[in-house]
Amino acid sequence: MTSSWDVGVPAAPASPSSGRFEWANVLRGVASVAVLVFHLGFIFWVAQDAAAGLARHAPAYTGDEGAPAFARVFQAVPFDLGGFGVALFFLISGFVIAISLNRYSRAGFLVGRAMRLLPTYAAGYLVTCLVIAVMSDPAGELSLRSVLVGAVPGLGLVLGVPVPGDGIVWTLIIELMFYGVCLVAYRSISRRVLSLALVAAACVAVQLVVPMPAVIVGSSKGGIAYLLLLACPFLPVMLVGVALSGIRSGHLSLRTGLVAAAGLVAVHATLLATSPVMPPSVEYQVSFGVAILVFGAFWWFGRRVHAHRVTTFLADLSYPLYVVHPVLGYATLAVLTARHVPALVSLAVALLVVLVASWVLHHVVEVPTHRWGRRWARRLSARDASPAVVSAAAPGAIEDPEPTPVSS
User: Fold this and answer.
1) I want to staple 85 with a disulfide (CB 3.0 to 4.6 A). Which of 11, 34, 393, 404 is the partner?
2) pLDDT at 386
3) pLDDT tens per residue, range 239-266
4) First CA to last CA distance, the chain
5) Taking the alpha carbons of 288, 348, 134, 368 in that order, is the dihedral positive or negative?
6) Are 92 and 238 in contact (CB under 8 A)?
């Protein structure tokens, strides 16, 4: 008799009706709420100086001295809700991107990912720049060059060109770097533990060897070094999702995949604790650990998880919501707070504003560009007649995965 530890055991098959993993979509909705609440319901109020910089508005008060009661409640809880959302999105991304690799050729994957991520980000970034303009661009950030370069995540750092900050692009940069890893390793990344180990080892080597640059913004060399150091602690988290996806697809045995995932968690924890780019708090590190446990539980018991219209709505809007919510939400809160509008009312209005903007971007930009990119990717992948592509294109295969970037 064959033990389940010796073969790949799919933890949660795709729903035949929806063609997607309902549990992953539910988690995406949960992560969206976590990030949105963290930024607009907590950070804006307890870190006014930093939030005012993104809002391009004068601080309403110093630090957290004017924070309302609901923000104080979040402050008293020793848990980083933003970090929790970050980790969930990265894990989901690793899981579904591994499936996408098995579905498309390299060229198809590249085109599909580019069309899935870049147009929506560019549109959301233009909304951010419009908000900066409405706020009178106090730091003189806006120019045709800075806006065009900033519309591509990380391009400003690579070229040494300062661009308007939106507070969230760093995770999109990590997402793009993960795509680069996937293009190099391709399908072996979800089928061979050696590929996972080599990527993890490369992350360790980069963090050990590459020095923290003295100049980041305005220096191409410093910007590239910063990008590499930024990605090192987080790529192993995404690879945890890849390992679990490999078990689900049957390419990795349950034992092998879980051992690989445990090793990747250890690498992530070590690199995050020693990162020169963003030294985390203990709460931030704990939030990542909790997110990994939650993701693992959903992966294992996914058959029992059913989508709800609220989580589905938030999951569908998660990407444009992520792109526009910091600057647009902070600016809305800053303007209302300056006019002495009650905090809860200001928060409700800001949430409504970012949800409406996200809904518009989703339907006007995200849905059509996703559809075009998927068709293009399928045409390119049709040249690859391998059994993997043919099998992955069969009915019941997971839908093209959503991009899952977040910020804390």
Assistant:
1) 34
2) 53
3) 999 999 999 999 999 999 999 999 999 9
4) 48
5) positive
6) no
User: Kind and range of the H or E element at 23?
Assistant: helix 22-38
Rounded CA gap, 332 and 105, in Å? 43
Give me the pLDDT at residue 398, please. 34
- With respect to residue 398, please indicate whether it lies within any of the assigned structural domains: no
> Is the pLDDT confidence value at 396 over 60?
no
pTM of the full structure = 0.88
In a domain, 330, yes or no: yes
Give the HSE-up count for residue 316: Cα atoms under 13 Å, Cβ half-sphere: 16
- pLDDT at position 245 is 95
Mean pLDDT of the region 316-327: 94
Residue 219 lies in a domain: yes
* 406 within domain boundaries: no
What's the Rg (C-alpha) of the chain? 21
| 8 Å CB contact between 139 and 145 | no
Q: How far apart are CA 53 and CA 58, in angstroms?
A: 8
Instruction: Report which of 186, 175, 167 is spatially closest to residue 39, judged by C-alpha positions.
Output: 167
Distance of alpha carbon 191 from alpha carbon 91, whole angstroms:
17
Distance of CA 348 to the CA centre of its chain: 25
- Within 10 angstroms of residue 368's Cβ, the number of other Cβ atoms is 11
pLDDT at 359: 97
For the chain, the domain total comes to: 1
* AA letter at 105: S
Q: Alpha-carbon distance 224 to 220, whole Å?
A: 6
Residue range 177-205: average pLDDT?
95
Give 20's pLDDT tier (boundaries 50, 70, 90): low
Q: Which of 11-25, 186-200, 330-344 is predicted with the least confidence, judged by mean pLDDT? A: 11-25
Provide the domain limits for residue 340.
4-392
d(CA 132, CA 165): 10
Do residues 338 and 57 touch, judged by C-beta distance below 8 A?
A: yes
Residue-level pLDDT at 325: 94
Q: Are the C-beta atoms of residues 347 and 45 closer than 8 Å to each other?
A: no
Q: How far apart are CA 303 and CA 174, in angstroms?
A: 30
Residue where the block lists tokens 């780019």: 277
